[in-house]
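Hi V.,

Quick status before I head out on leave. The structure for the redesign project is tokenized and pasted below; the design run finished overnight.
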């Protein structure tokens, strides 16, 4: 990869302080702007990932996103898409994307062979995307145009056991349960109704 923005002066200063510039350059060579078949398989098998965004002032936010296997799709050589499900209504991540489209995604496999994959790019959010009609529970669709995709060393990933998938992950033909917090006295009088979404049944 030859994107001149892959490293900035802050990265370079620390690389030079720790004599790692040559290693960093070698790792940059392995970064790419298109998904491999292995990337696609890993991403589309994922049940979660971490999403990093920032507002117009550069103040960061990090969010956990989860769903059933396949909830993230690789939709093109350098594009992926994922749904926004019913949440707490803060729209911290997606609101950030409205003012700053730069985004980072981190996929981690902690259940089986450890693996990490990072995806950086620019994102757009839509209420009219064609995928809405084919994605159970989606109220919005986020598409990410890839600037860089690269693997990370998995050495610090813990080995965990997956006991069960989330009961809240949208499932075709099944009405997702409401989270308990929506019934708390502090919120129950102001919780908005769920947006209509596709339930996975034939139209």
């Amino acid at each position: 990869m030859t994107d001149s923005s892959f490293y900035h002066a802050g990265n370079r200063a620390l690389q030079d302080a720790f004599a790692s510039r040559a290693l960093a350059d070698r790792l940059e060579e392995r970064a790419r702007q298109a998904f491999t078949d292995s990337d696609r398989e890993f991403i589309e098998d994922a049940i979660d990932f971490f999403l990093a965004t920032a507002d117009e002032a550069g103040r960061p936010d990090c969010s956990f996103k989860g769903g059933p296997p396949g909830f993230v799709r690789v939709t093109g050589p350098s594009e992926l898409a994922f749904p926004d499900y019913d949440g707490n209504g803060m729209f911290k991540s997606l609101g950030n994307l409205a003012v700053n489209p730069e985004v980072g995604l981190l996929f981690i496999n902690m259940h089986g062979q450890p693996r990490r994959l990072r995806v950086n790019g620019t994102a757009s959010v839509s209420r009219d995307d064609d995928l809405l009609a084919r994605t159970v529970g989606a109220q919005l669709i986020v598409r990410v145009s890839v600037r860089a995709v690269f693997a990370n060393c998995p050495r610090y990933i813990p080995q965990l056991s997956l006991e069960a998938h989330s009961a809240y992950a949208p499932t075709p033909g099944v009405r997702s349960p409401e989270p308990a917090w929506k019934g708390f006295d502090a919120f129950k009088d102001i919780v908005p109704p769920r947006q209509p979404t596709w339930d996975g049944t034939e139209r």
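Above is the designed sequence. The chain has a mean pLDDT of 95.

G. will cover questions while I'm gone.

Best,
W.
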